[in-house]
Amino acid sequence: MASAYSIKKSNAHYKQAVKRLPMGVSSNYRSWGPDQTLYVSHGKGARLWDIDGNSYVDYRLGFGPAILGYADERVDEAAREGMSVGGPTALSTEREHAVAERIAGMVRSVDMVRFANSGTEAVMAGLRLARSFTGRSRHIMIEGGYHGLSDGVLWEMHHEQNEAGDVNLEVQSEGRGVPTVLRTLFDTVPLNDPEKLEEVLRVEGNDVAVLLIEVILGNAGGIVSEPGYLKRIRSLCDEYGVVLMVDEVKTGFRVARGGVQELMDVEADICTFAKAMGNGYPISAVAGREEIMSTIGPEGSAQGGTYAAHPVSLAAAEKTLQILDETDALEKINEYGVELQQGISQLLSARGVTHTWSGHPSMSGVFFMESAPRNYEDWVKSDYEFYEALAARLIGSGILVEPDSREPFFISAAHDDSCLNETLEKFESALSFVLDERAQKK
User: Fold this and answer.
1) Is position 3 within any domain?
2) 187 included as an active-site residue
3) Which of 275, 319, 378, 384 is catalytic?
4) Is 275 known to be catalytic?
Protein backbone atom coordinates (compact mmCIF):
# COMPACT_ATOMS: atom_id res chain seq x y z
CA MET A 1 0.00 0.00 0.00
CA ALA A 2 1.20 3.50 -0.79
CA SER A 3 2.32 5.55 2.20
CA ALA A 4 -0.30 8.22 1.46
CA TYR A 5 -3.69 6.60 1.98
CA SER A 6 -6.33 7.81 -0.45
CA ILE A 7 -9.87 6.70 -1.23
CA LYS A 8 -10.62 9.39 -3.81
CA LYS A 9 -12.23 6.90 -6.21
CA SER A 10 -14.45 5.51 -3.47
CA ASN A 11 -15.47 9.04 -2.47
CA ALA A 12 -16.24 9.94 -6.08
CA HIS A 13 -18.22 6.75 -6.58
CA TYR A 14 -20.19 7.43 -3.41
CA LYS A 15 -21.42 10.71 -4.88
CA GLN A 16 -22.81 8.82 -7.87
CA ALA A 17 -24.06 5.77 -5.99
CA VAL A 18 -26.04 7.77 -3.45
CA LYS A 19 -28.24 9.06 -6.29
CA ARG A 20 -29.57 5.55 -6.99
CA LEU A 21 -28.80 3.59 -3.82
CA PRO A 22 -30.03 4.87 -0.44
CA MET A 23 -26.91 5.77 1.56
CA GLY A 24 -24.92 4.74 -1.53
CA VAL A 25 -24.98 1.05 -0.58
CA SER A 26 -27.20 -2.04 -0.47
CA SER A 27 -27.06 -2.52 3.31
CA ASN A 28 -27.11 0.21 5.96
CA TYR A 29 -24.11 -1.30 7.70
CA ARG A 30 -21.85 -0.82 4.67
CA SER A 31 -22.13 2.95 4.74
CA TRP A 32 -19.43 4.77 6.69
CA GLY A 33 -20.47 8.22 5.48
CA PRO A 34 -19.61 10.29 2.39
CA ASP A 35 -15.86 10.44 3.08
CA GLN A 36 -15.18 6.96 4.50
CA THR A 37 -17.38 4.48 2.62
CA LEU A 38 -15.24 1.94 0.78
CA TYR A 39 -16.06 0.23 -2.51
CA VAL A 40 -14.39 -3.11 -3.09
CA SER A 41 -12.59 -4.24 -6.22
CA HIS A 42 -11.97 -7.83 -5.12
CA GLY A 43 -10.86 -10.10 -2.33
CA LYS A 44 -8.49 -13.03 -2.21
CA GLY A 45 -7.54 -15.05 0.83
CA ALA A 46 -7.47 -12.80 3.89
CA ARG A 47 -7.06 -9.60 1.88
CA LEU A 48 -9.33 -7.09 0.18
CA TRP A 49 -8.59 -4.44 -2.43
CA ASP A 50 -10.69 -1.33 -2.86
CA ILE A 51 -11.28 0.52 -6.12
CA ASP A 52 -8.45 2.93 -5.26
CA GLY A 53 -6.02 -0.01 -5.23
CA ASN A 54 -5.52 -0.03 -1.46
CA SER A 55 -4.85 -3.47 0.01
CA TYR A 56 -6.19 -4.50 3.42
CA VAL A 57 -5.65 -7.41 5.77
CA ASP A 58 -9.30 -8.05 6.52
CA TYR A 59 -10.69 -8.89 9.97
CA ARG A 60 -14.32 -8.24 9.05
CA LEU A 61 -14.64 -11.01 6.44
CA GLY A 62 -18.06 -9.75 5.41
CA PHE A 63 -19.14 -9.99 9.10
CA GLY A 64 -17.87 -13.55 9.27
CA PRO A 65 -18.78 -15.60 6.17
CA ALA A 66 -15.34 -15.92 4.52
CA ILE A 67 -14.08 -18.49 7.00
CA LEU A 68 -11.76 -20.12 4.46
CA GLY A 69 -10.81 -16.79 2.91
CA TYR A 70 -12.11 -14.93 -0.11
CA ALA A 71 -12.30 -16.75 -3.44
CA ASP A 72 -11.31 -20.12 -2.01
CA GLU A 73 -10.64 -22.19 -5.12
CA ARG A 74 -12.08 -25.41 -3.68
CA VAL A 75 -15.37 -23.77 -2.78
CA ASP A 76 -15.61 -21.75 -5.98
CA GLU A 77 -15.01 -24.87 -8.07
CA ALA A 78 -17.84 -26.60 -6.23
CA ALA A 79 -20.09 -23.59 -6.81
CA ARG A 80 -19.36 -23.70 -10.52
CA GLU A 81 -20.33 -27.36 -10.52
CA GLY A 82 -23.57 -26.34 -8.81
CA MET A 83 -24.34 -24.06 -11.75
CA SER A 84 -24.76 -27.15 -13.92
CA VAL A 85 -28.12 -27.79 -12.24
CA GLY A 86 -29.42 -24.78 -14.12
CA GLY A 87 -30.64 -22.68 -11.21
CA PRO A 88 -33.74 -22.94 -9.01
CA THR A 89 -36.31 -25.41 -10.38
CA ALA A 90 -39.05 -25.30 -7.71
CA LEU A 91 -38.02 -28.90 -7.04
CA SER A 92 -35.40 -30.45 -4.78
CA THR A 93 -32.01 -32.00 -5.44
CA GLU A 94 -30.17 -34.92 -3.85
CA ARG A 95 -27.56 -32.53 -2.49
CA GLU A 96 -30.05 -31.05 -0.01
CA HIS A 97 -30.15 -34.35 1.87
CA ALA A 98 -26.37 -34.72 1.67
CA VAL A 99 -25.74 -31.30 3.22
CA ALA A 100 -28.40 -31.87 5.87
CA GLU A 101 -26.67 -35.15 6.76
CA ARG A 102 -23.36 -33.31 7.10
CA ILE A 103 -24.88 -30.71 9.42
CA ALA A 104 -26.59 -33.37 11.54
CA GLY A 105 -23.29 -35.20 11.81
CA MET A 106 -21.50 -32.06 13.02
CA VAL A 107 -24.10 -30.59 15.39
CA ARG A 108 -25.41 -32.98 18.01
CA SER A 109 -28.77 -31.25 18.56
CA VAL A 110 -29.74 -31.45 14.89
CA ASP A 111 -32.11 -34.14 13.65
CA MET A 112 -33.63 -32.26 10.72
CA VAL A 113 -32.73 -29.24 8.57
CA ARG A 114 -34.48 -26.71 6.35
CA PHE A 115 -32.48 -24.37 4.10
CA ALA A 116 -32.98 -20.65 3.45
CA ASN A 117 -30.88 -17.78 2.10
CA SER A 118 -29.90 -15.55 5.02
CA GLY A 119 -29.64 -15.46 8.76
CA THR A 120 -32.69 -13.20 8.87
CA GLU A 121 -34.78 -15.80 7.02
CA ALA A 122 -33.55 -18.64 9.20
CA VAL A 123 -34.39 -16.79 12.42
CA MET A 124 -37.83 -15.84 11.10
CA ALA A 125 -38.52 -19.48 10.28
CA GLY A 126 -37.22 -20.66 13.65
CA LEU A 127 -39.40 -18.26 15.62
CA ARG A 128 -42.47 -19.20 13.60
CA LEU A 129 -41.69 -22.87 14.09
CA ALA A 130 -41.38 -22.42 17.87
CA ARG A 131 -44.69 -20.57 18.04
CA SER A 132 -46.36 -23.25 15.94
CA PHE A 133 -44.94 -26.08 18.06
CA THR A 134 -45.87 -24.55 21.43
CA GLY A 135 -49.07 -22.77 20.47
CA ARG A 136 -47.73 -19.67 22.21
CA SER A 137 -47.02 -16.18 20.86
CA ARG A 138 -44.31 -14.49 22.93
CA HIS A 139 -40.53 -14.68 22.71
CA ILE A 140 -37.64 -13.58 24.90
CA MET A 141 -34.39 -12.10 23.58
CA ILE A 142 -31.05 -11.30 25.19
CA GLU A 143 -29.96 -7.66 25.38
CA GLY A 144 -27.19 -7.02 22.86
CA GLY A 145 -28.10 -9.98 20.70
CA TYR A 146 -28.60 -9.51 16.98
CA HIS A 147 -30.93 -11.71 14.99
CA GLY A 148 -31.36 -10.05 11.62
CA LEU A 149 -33.71 -7.54 10.09
CA SER A 150 -37.20 -8.96 10.59
CA ASP A 151 -39.60 -6.76 12.55
CA GLY A 152 -40.03 -9.12 15.49
CA VAL A 153 -36.35 -9.00 16.45
CA LEU A 154 -35.29 -5.55 15.21
CA TRP A 155 -35.17 -4.02 18.67
CA GLU A 156 -32.34 -2.79 20.87
CA MET A 157 -31.43 -0.92 24.05
CA HIS A 158 -29.25 2.18 23.63
CA HIS A 159 -27.11 1.86 26.75
CA GLU A 160 -24.53 4.22 25.26
CA GLN A 161 -27.14 7.03 25.37
CA ASN A 162 -28.11 6.32 28.98
CA GLU A 163 -26.05 9.03 30.68
CA ALA A 164 -28.61 9.35 33.48
CA GLY A 165 -28.14 5.71 34.47
CA ASP A 166 -31.82 4.85 34.02
CA VAL A 167 -32.35 1.29 35.28
CA ASN A 168 -35.56 1.03 33.25
CA LEU A 169 -34.04 1.90 29.89
CA GLU A 170 -36.58 1.52 27.12
CA VAL A 171 -36.29 -1.05 24.34
CA GLN A 172 -36.56 0.69 20.97
CA SER A 173 -36.92 -0.48 17.39
CA GLU A 174 -33.84 -0.13 15.22
CA GLY A 175 -35.11 2.60 12.94
CA ARG A 176 -38.63 3.59 12.01
CA GLY A 177 -41.24 1.45 10.29
CA VAL A 178 -41.35 -1.37 12.83
CA PRO A 179 -44.92 -1.68 14.17
CA THR A 180 -44.97 -0.68 17.84
CA VAL A 181 -47.58 -3.35 18.56
CA LEU A 182 -44.82 -5.95 18.19
CA ARG A 183 -43.23 -4.60 21.37
CA THR A 184 -46.03 -6.30 23.29
CA LEU A 185 -44.95 -9.74 22.03
CA PHE A 186 -41.49 -10.06 23.54
CA ASP A 187 -39.29 -9.37 26.55
CA THR A 188 -35.55 -8.74 26.82
CA VAL A 189 -33.25 -9.88 29.62
CA PRO A 190 -29.52 -9.37 30.24
CA LEU A 191 -27.00 -12.06 29.37
CA ASN A 192 -25.67 -14.10 32.29
CA ASP A 193 -28.58 -13.16 34.56
CA PRO A 194 -30.78 -16.26 34.98
CA GLU A 195 -32.71 -14.60 37.80
CA LYS A 196 -34.05 -11.94 35.41
CA LEU A 197 -35.07 -14.66 32.97
CA GLU A 198 -36.83 -16.57 35.73
CA GLU A 199 -38.68 -13.40 36.79
CA VAL A 200 -40.07 -13.01 33.28
CA LEU A 201 -41.00 -16.67 33.01
CA ARG A 202 -42.85 -16.61 36.33
CA VAL A 203 -45.12 -13.90 34.92
CA GLU A 204 -45.23 -14.70 31.20
CA GLY A 205 -44.09 -18.33 31.05
CA ASN A 206 -47.39 -19.80 29.89
CA ASP A 207 -47.35 -17.46 26.88
CA VAL A 208 -43.62 -17.69 25.96
CA ALA A 209 -42.86 -19.87 22.96
CA VAL A 210 -39.11 -19.42 22.69
CA LEU A 211 -35.95 -18.01 24.24
CA LEU A 212 -33.74 -16.70 21.43
CA ILE A 213 -30.06 -16.37 22.31
CA GLU A 214 -26.63 -15.85 20.83
CA VAL A 215 -24.42 -17.77 23.26
CA ILE A 216 -21.56 -15.52 22.14
CA LEU A 217 -22.90 -12.05 21.36
CA GLY A 218 -21.73 -11.56 17.79
CA ASN A 219 -22.67 -7.88 17.66
CA ALA A 220 -21.42 -7.01 21.13
CA GLY A 221 -17.74 -7.80 20.88
CA GLY A 222 -18.14 -11.50 21.53
CA ILE A 223 -19.43 -11.28 25.13
CA VAL A 224 -19.68 -14.90 26.28
CA SER A 225 -22.37 -16.79 28.17
CA GLU A 226 -21.12 -18.38 31.36
CA PRO A 227 -21.38 -22.20 31.64
CA GLY A 228 -23.53 -22.09 34.77
CA TYR A 229 -25.85 -19.62 33.08
CA LEU A 230 -26.33 -21.90 30.09
CA LYS A 231 -27.19 -24.86 32.30
CA ARG A 232 -29.71 -22.73 34.18
CA ILE A 233 -31.48 -21.37 31.11
CA ARG A 234 -31.67 -24.87 29.63
CA SER A 235 -33.32 -26.01 32.85
CA LEU A 236 -35.71 -23.05 32.92
CA CYS A 237 -36.76 -23.63 29.32
CA ASP A 238 -37.52 -27.25 30.14
CA GLU A 239 -39.42 -26.27 33.28
CA TYR A 240 -41.66 -23.76 31.50
CA GLY A 241 -42.02 -25.61 28.20
CA VAL A 242 -40.11 -22.93 26.31
CA VAL A 243 -38.16 -23.73 23.14
CA LEU A 244 -34.46 -22.89 23.47
CA MET A 245 -33.38 -21.41 20.13
CA VAL A 246 -29.65 -20.81 19.70
CA ASP A 247 -28.77 -18.35 16.95
CA GLU A 248 -25.53 -19.69 15.46
CA VAL A 249 -25.54 -17.47 12.38
CA LYS A 250 -22.09 -16.19 13.38
CA THR A 251 -20.77 -18.98 15.62
CA GLY A 252 -21.96 -21.94 13.57
CA PHE A 253 -19.11 -24.07 12.13
CA ARG A 254 -16.69 -21.33 13.24
CA VAL A 255 -15.99 -21.68 16.97
CA ALA A 256 -16.07 -25.49 16.68
CA ARG A 257 -17.20 -28.09 14.18
CA GLY A 258 -20.38 -28.42 16.17
CA GLY A 259 -20.65 -24.69 16.68
CA VAL A 260 -21.13 -22.94 19.98
CA GLN A 261 -23.27 -25.81 21.22
CA GLU A 262 -20.23 -28.09 21.13
CA LEU A 263 -17.91 -25.41 22.46
CA MET A 264 -20.11 -24.47 25.43
CA ASP A 265 -21.83 -27.83 26.00
CA VAL A 266 -25.39 -26.62 25.46
CA GLU A 267 -28.06 -28.35 23.40
CA ALA A 268 -30.65 -26.28 21.55
CA ASP A 269 -34.14 -27.28 20.53
CA ILE A 270 -33.85 -25.12 17.40
CA CYS A 271 -30.70 -23.53 15.97
CA THR A 272 -29.92 -21.33 13.00
CA PHE A 273 -26.85 -21.22 10.76
CA ALA A 274 -25.60 -19.00 7.93
CA LYS A 275 -22.40 -17.03 7.20
CA ALA A 276 -19.53 -19.54 7.58
CA MET A 277 -21.52 -22.50 6.27
CA GLY A 278 -21.14 -21.33 2.66
CA ASN A 279 -17.87 -19.34 2.80
CA GLY A 280 -19.76 -16.30 1.56
CA TYR A 281 -22.30 -17.87 -0.76
CA PRO A 282 -25.85 -16.95 0.32
CA ILE A 283 -27.25 -19.85 2.31
CA SER A 284 -28.66 -20.45 5.77
CA ALA A 285 -30.45 -23.16 7.69
CA VAL A 286 -32.90 -23.63 10.51
CA ALA A 287 -32.40 -26.96 12.23
CA GLY A 288 -33.30 -28.85 15.36
CA ARG A 289 -35.05 -31.69 17.09
CA GLU A 290 -37.24 -33.98 14.97
CA GLU A 291 -40.17 -33.47 17.34
CA ILE A 292 -40.19 -29.78 16.47
CA MET A 293 -38.90 -29.75 12.90
CA SER A 294 -41.36 -32.39 11.73
CA THR A 295 -44.25 -30.02 12.42
CA ILE A 296 -43.27 -28.03 9.33
CA GLY A 297 -45.93 -28.74 6.73
CA PRO A 298 -49.45 -27.94 5.53
CA GLU A 299 -50.98 -28.44 8.98
CA GLY A 300 -48.10 -26.85 10.86
CA SER A 301 -45.51 -24.16 10.21
CA ALA A 302 -44.87 -22.69 6.75
CA GLN A 303 -41.30 -22.42 5.49
CA GLY A 304 -39.88 -22.15 2.00
CA GLY A 305 -38.76 -19.85 -0.77
CA THR A 306 -37.91 -19.75 -4.46
CA TYR A 307 -34.18 -19.57 -3.77
CA ALA A 308 -34.04 -21.87 -0.73
CA ALA A 309 -31.29 -24.48 -1.22
CA HIS A 310 -30.12 -22.72 -4.39
CA PRO A 311 -27.94 -25.23 -6.27
CA VAL A 312 -24.90 -22.93 -6.40
CA SER A 313 -24.96 -21.98 -2.73
CA LEU A 314 -25.77 -25.52 -1.66
CA ALA A 315 -22.77 -26.89 -3.55
CA ALA A 316 -20.57 -24.24 -1.93
CA ALA A 317 -21.91 -25.18 1.49
CA GLU A 318 -21.30 -28.87 0.87
CA LYS A 319 -17.63 -28.22 0.09
CA THR A 320 -17.15 -25.64 2.86
CA LEU A 321 -18.58 -27.93 5.52
CA GLN A 322 -16.52 -30.85 4.26
CA ILE A 323 -13.34 -28.79 4.60
CA LEU A 324 -14.25 -27.52 8.06
CA ASP A 325 -15.26 -30.99 9.22
CA GLU A 326 -12.43 -33.05 7.74
CA THR A 327 -9.35 -30.77 7.79
CA ASP A 328 -7.49 -28.77 10.43
CA ALA A 329 -8.84 -25.44 9.13
CA LEU A 330 -10.53 -24.57 12.43
CA GLU A 331 -7.43 -25.44 14.42
CA LYS A 332 -5.38 -23.10 12.23
CA ILE A 333 -7.97 -20.35 12.62
CA ASN A 334 -7.94 -20.69 16.39
CA GLU A 335 -4.14 -20.72 16.53
CA TYR A 336 -3.94 -17.51 14.51
CA GLY A 337 -6.61 -15.90 16.69
CA VAL A 338 -4.65 -16.70 19.84
CA GLU A 339 -1.43 -15.32 18.34
CA LEU A 340 -3.22 -12.15 17.25
CA GLN A 341 -4.63 -11.58 20.73
CA GLN A 342 -1.26 -12.23 22.37
CA GLY A 343 0.56 -9.92 19.97
CA ILE A 344 -1.91 -7.07 20.39
CA SER A 345 -1.97 -7.54 24.17
CA GLN A 346 1.82 -7.29 24.34
CA LEU A 347 1.72 -4.00 22.45
CA LEU A 348 -1.08 -2.58 24.60
CA SER A 349 0.48 -3.71 27.88
CA ALA A 350 3.84 -2.23 26.91
CA ARG A 351 2.11 1.16 26.65
CA GLY A 352 0.13 0.67 29.86
CA VAL A 353 -3.25 0.38 28.14
CA THR A 354 -5.80 -1.50 30.23
CA HIS A 355 -7.66 -4.03 28.12
CA THR A 356 -9.28 -7.44 28.04
CA TRP A 357 -10.63 -9.86 25.44
CA SER A 358 -13.92 -11.64 25.06
CA GLY A 359 -15.30 -14.20 22.64
CA HIS A 360 -13.43 -17.00 20.94
CA PRO A 361 -10.09 -16.87 19.07
CA SER A 362 -11.97 -17.14 15.76
CA MET A 363 -14.26 -14.17 16.59
CA SER A 364 -13.12 -12.03 19.49
CA GLY A 365 -13.54 -8.50 20.76
CA VAL A 366 -11.05 -6.28 22.57
CA PHE A 367 -12.42 -4.12 25.37
CA PHE A 368 -10.57 -1.24 26.97
CA MET A 369 -11.59 -1.96 30.55
CA GLU A 370 -10.38 -3.95 33.58
CA SER A 371 -12.36 -7.17 33.16
CA ALA A 372 -14.36 -8.76 30.37
CA PRO A 373 -17.98 -7.59 30.17
CA ARG A 374 -20.66 -10.05 31.32
CA ASN A 375 -23.52 -8.41 29.43
CA TYR A 376 -24.30 -5.71 26.90
CA GLU A 377 -24.69 -2.97 29.52
CA ASP A 378 -21.09 -3.60 30.60
CA TRP A 379 -19.90 -2.74 27.08
CA VAL A 380 -20.75 0.91 27.75
CA LYS A 381 -18.21 0.95 30.59
CA SER A 382 -15.40 0.18 28.14
CA ASP A 383 -13.46 2.95 26.44
CA TYR A 384 -15.06 2.33 23.06
CA GLU A 385 -14.04 5.79 21.86
CA PHE A 386 -10.41 4.68 22.17
CA TYR A 387 -11.25 1.64 20.06
CA GLU A 388 -12.92 3.82 17.43
CA ALA A 389 -9.86 6.05 17.16
CA LEU A 390 -7.60 3.00 16.82
CA ALA A 391 -9.89 1.44 14.22
CA ALA A 392 -9.88 4.55 12.06
CA ARG A 393 -6.08 4.64 12.11
CA LEU A 394 -5.82 0.91 11.37
CA ILE A 395 -8.15 1.13 8.38
CA GLY A 396 -6.11 3.97 6.94
CA SER A 397 -2.97 1.86 7.24
CA GLY A 398 -4.43 -1.21 5.56
CA ILE A 399 -5.82 -3.25 8.47
CA LEU A 400 -9.56 -3.58 7.94
CA VAL A 401 -11.43 -3.79 11.23
CA GLU A 402 -14.96 -2.72 12.05
CA PRO A 403 -15.18 0.97 13.05
CA ASP A 404 -17.72 -0.01 15.73
CA SER A 405 -16.19 -1.86 18.71
CA ARG A 406 -19.22 -4.14 18.98
CA GLU A 407 -18.23 -6.13 15.90
CA PRO A 408 -15.61 -8.83 16.64
CA PHE A 409 -12.35 -9.53 14.83
CA PHE A 410 -13.08 -12.44 12.48
CA ILE A 411 -10.31 -14.86 11.50
CA SER A 412 -10.12 -17.02 8.38
CA ALA A 413 -8.04 -20.04 7.45
CA ALA A 414 -6.29 -17.78 4.92
CA HIS A 415 -4.77 -15.49 7.56
CA ASP A 416 -1.06 -16.33 7.70
CA ASP A 417 2.20 -15.12 9.22
CA SER A 418 2.51 -12.29 6.72
CA CYS A 419 -0.94 -11.04 7.78
CA LEU A 420 -0.04 -11.32 11.45
CA ASN A 421 3.29 -9.53 11.13
CA GLU A 422 1.77 -6.73 9.08
CA THR A 423 -1.12 -6.38 11.51
CA LEU A 424 1.07 -6.12 14.60
CA GLU A 425 3.48 -3.70 12.96
CA LYS A 426 0.66 -1.39 11.90
CA PHE A 427 -1.20 -1.81 15.18
CA GLU A 428 1.88 -0.59 17.05
CA SER A 429 2.07 2.46 14.82
CA ALA A 430 -1.67 3.18 15.14
CA LEU A 431 -1.48 2.78 18.91
CA SER A 432 1.37 5.27 19.20
CA PHE A 433 -0.51 7.78 17.07
CA VAL A 434 -3.73 7.53 19.09
CA LEU A 435 -1.95 7.70 22.45
CA ASP A 436 0.07 10.72 21.34
CA GLU A 437 -3.08 12.39 20.04
CA ARG A 438 -4.85 11.82 23.35
CA ALA A 439 -1.88 13.15 25.30
CA GLN A 440 -1.91 16.36 23.27
CA LYS A 441 -5.61 16.91 24.03
CA LYS A 442 -5.09 16.75 27.79
Assistant:
1) no
2) no
3) 275
4) yes
